[in-house]
Amino acid sequence: MGVYLSMRGSRRADGTGRAPDENYAREVLQLFSIGLYELDQSGSLKRDASGNPIETYTQEDIVGLARAFTGWEADRFVRGEPTHWRRPMKLLPDYHEPGAKRFLGLTIPAGTDGATTLESALDHIAAHPNVGPFIGRQLIQRLVTSNPSPAYVYRVAQTFADDGNGQRGNLGAVIRAVLLDPEARDASAVDSETFGKVREPIVRFVQWARTFRARDPEGRYLLYDYSDPANKLGQSPSRAPSVFNFFRPGYVPPNTALGERGLVAPELQITSESSVVGYANFMLRVVRTGLGNRLVPNYGREQRLAGDPAALVARLDLLLGGGQLSEATRAAIESALETIRNDDEVKRLARVHAAILMVMVSSDYLVQR
Predict the structure, then answer these.
(1) pTM of the model
(2) For residues 286 and 279, what is the distance between their CA atoms, to the nearest angstrom?
(3) What is the mean pLDDT of the chain?
(4) 123-126: long-range contacts, CB 8 A cutoff, minimum separation 24
């Protein structure tokens, strides 16, 4: 983030027109901590007397926070040598703004050293009441469901505020609260039209690799760019097209029944006709051959079930779909598998390939409940 959002190398004002870079200060508030508008603990917008959302920060807050973030640089940068990226940035005191910094109601006194300033700034941001519901709701969206209830968000936010032992910001406790909440564990939720989320393409790919114990014989795991939606996944780790990630948490597909019902579907922001076909074609190749000698799957257990389509589909439903494929989907896949001969290992393996692909392109799988 220090490089991506230009915090690295940000210097104090020097009288020549130079000013601290404001990019990281703005994004750490907008995207990573408190968001644009004040929230109550259920994640709902607070509004002023005129009914307008209340902004969480001003341009003056950004200026003050940018001053607090000055003076940090990569540690011992050497061209062609990547190890410095694994070390924390270091403070260059001469580049740090020595004056007072004021933002979000906090004043850090003039003369405070850069390390203390940075710690004080981050502690103050983390103590903001928005952090729990803002971060909590997005964790729920990524891990459980795109449209959590206000009560669900409230319970997670309360865990962020106090993990039960008086500690604020215990993310381990927050993740447990997200995954073990009654709304996440209630089996009846799978029947709700508002519960669930679209599986991200890269998550589907990683699930395939882990489920079928894909390995790189050389142990290198050289995975490249899969961002092309027409031929690959349309998503690739660490290659989000902007600071807003691959998709926005509040994305609503235009002119849809989801929008009419006031629901969001973040992952559909990177879904199109091209990406749907591109994903299917990419997985067709990957399921059959892996990624060459860079990622080789093991279908031994599945091959032993190839003679029994119902048993094979039941296993894949459990491993990939969490037992949530509909009876109609399972029956359709089983019927298709019956058309593939089963009289030698090559054909049995073809059955396995077809079964995995059909599960992973089915709507029952793509929408995780």
Answers:
(1) 0.91
(2) 10
(3) 94
(4) 125/28, 125/29, 125/33, 125/34, 126/33, 126/168, 126/169
